[in-house]
Amino acid sequence: MKIVVLAGGLSPERNVSLSTGTGVCRALRKRGHKAVLVDMFLGLERFAGKIEEIFDAPDGLCSNVAIEKTAPDLDAVRASRADKSASKFGPGVLDACRAADIVFLGLHGECGEDGRVQATFDLLGIPYTGAGYLSSGMAMDKAITKTVMERVGVRTAPWREVCYTEEDIPRLVEELEVPCAVKVINGGSSLGLSLPDTKEELEKALHEMLRYGNRILVEKKLHGRELTVGVLGNDYLPAVEIIPQNNSAYFDYVAKYQAGGSLEVCPAPITEEQWREMGEATLKLYHGLGLSAYARADFILDEEGRAWCLEINTLPGMTSASLLPKEAAAVGMSYEDLCERIVEESLRVRREGR
Predict the structure, then answer these.
(1) By CB distance 3.0 to 4.6 Å, which of 102, 109, 176, 270 could disulfide with 127?
(2) Which structural domain range is residue 246 located in?
(3) DSSP state for residue 128 in the 8-state scheme
């Protein structure tokens, strides 16, 4: 098949996305597909050939991308685009996607997981991987996801949604209890996340979150083991336990993407009952949001052995070292197998009109 692996974009998770896209593209090419990596925002400015020739480009236009300790400078990315267009799609991107049999969405964060790209592709009749536009948008919004968790009976921490400005911060510092977790409503890769223990830390966090927007979710801070469970098709996979290293208090951006940042154990050393509980909770939330093809849910397992769901990721990381590929490997599925299975599941879903 001709496959465009769409990555990059303008999310703070841009470099994570490019790393995912590069891994997926090379895996699909190993399987004989004519896969090509396309940066959603920068597009094909540097490709001199015709659109139909892109699928024969050497190494699928892949390049090695390092994930730095800090998020990329998106203003610099914008300035680097020659046409200076305000469009989120770079030159030639939509033409390349129309020419493909399917687009593998290697995007992460707001640029790709909030449903807008999926809605565009639905309108243009372009098949793509993962969930549809509505369920993607719902899952990206942490407040909506929390509401669905409560509706379908998935245990989650007490929470509240807050819309605020700088002027509201003194009042919120008084109102909100600490310790707590403060999250931007549509963040990912642990960007836009703070875990204040004191009122002073809470005040600092509220100022910091305004960098990402004026809507946040504040929930009770949970203590316990960090685990995640993936879904492929309609089945859940073995759980992974994430143990942050190098003095990381939790699975933050550095712990996720820097060498030695975390120890990831799969299958997780938990009981069968605990795994089943998290797996069934993941499926409840997956179906409650109307997700499809694949996803990954994150949990805290407290000292009493109770699993608390944090969120669900509709386009989880797909580098060869990411969590979902580790889960697939635990059931004998290679990285290349997983990438191809996601394509097959997604084509089935699109044929069904979802």
Answers:
(1) 102
(2) 139-155+223-351
(3) B
State the Cα–Cα distance between residues 85 and 67, nearest whole angstrom: 26
| pLDDT tens digits, 90-132 | 999 999 999 999 999 999 887 789 999 999 999 999 999 999 9
Helices (H) and strands (E) in the chain, counts: 13, 13
Helix (H) or strand (E) holding 222: none
- Mean predicted lDDT score pLDDT of the chain: 92
Rounded (5°) CA angle 191-238-291: 60
Residue found under tokens 């929390």:
146
Beta strands in the chain, from DSSP E residues, in sequence order: 2-7, 34-39, 102-105, 159-163, 180-184, 193-194, 215-220, 225-232, 235-236, 240-244, 262-265, 294-301, 307-313
Residue 257 in domain = yes
In this structure, the strands spanning 2-7 and 34-39 are parallel
Task: Using DSSP, state whether 94 is helix, strand or coil.
Answer: helix
Distance CA 255, CA 250 (A): 8
Is residue 63 situated within a structural domain? yes
